[in-house]
TrEMBL record:
It comes from the Bacteria. This is NAD-dependent epimerase/dehydratase family protein. Pfam families: Epimerase (PF01370). PANTHER family: BIFUNCTIONAL POLYMYXIN RESISTANCE PROTEIN ARNA, BLL5923 PROTEIN. Residues 6-216 form the NAD-dependent epimerase/dehydratase domain. InterPro entries: Epimerase_deHydtase, Lipid_A_modif_metabolic_enz, NAD(P)-bd_dom_sf.
Amino acid sequence: MTGLVALTGATGFIGRHLLATLTARGYRVRVLLRRPVEVPPGAASAVVGDLTRPINMAAALSDVDAVVHSAGLAHAMSGTPEDDYRTLNTEATARLAQAAERAKVRRFVFLSSIRAQTGASAPGLVTEADEPRPTDPYGRSKREAELALAATGLDWAALRPVLVYGAGAKGNLEALLRLARSPYPLPLGGLRARRSLISLDSLAEAVDTLLKAPEPLRAPFIAADPDPLTLPEMIAALRQGLSRRPGLLPMPEPLLGLACRVTGRGEVFERVAGGLVARSDGLVRLGWQPPMTTREGLARLVQG
């Protein structure tokens, strides 16, 4: 079992789940906080302020064996300046890594993103052997943070999760849940592109796998459940969890695309119709096994 783990982003969508999971698995967790907040029982806390201008970092990382860095500026469709992504995702990660190196931390696990490697969709299978080609400010900021880690002497690992689903999900997953819960048939049955997802539980299992790996890592790791689904299959799984029939109409994809563009939803259609299938070769080699299939996870998500 690893020693003391310092966790950032513990109040966020992923960080909250990591805190609960790591604590439940017997890890001693020290939460690095921007300001004093209530911390769940079983975890210690240290106030470090803004990670772009940290305070008290030496004390916060004292006796820490590993850092799990999940804090950062989440992806948004538009409206966020590139400089903000660079400041909060790249520069803050670099400063934390430098402090961790000074504190002789054994391992640094960074929550990066599949967008550090590819765009919102990809024509073929995405693997860790592919050359990273981020296409937006968010993806570039995550990739630059990975490069900053590689420039240190730390033993680091960058997790590149695909779209993460779980309780409290926002953005595309929140929109998908609204569609599945609607009482109406949906004209989405003709969409055939597959997309990889990963559950919060599978992602926590991946973090645990990286923390426990005995050998040096210093590499990025794609995190994706092994069973990519089409959008109709996702909705069918969600509605199965609600004890409902799929309710999907097979409208041809070109016709659906035209309808979306005419109604001003062309961008939404491009996101929905595009596929992104990724494979987690590195994690699998380390023994990672997702605790459930994507269909099972989506069904459970709407059951409570």
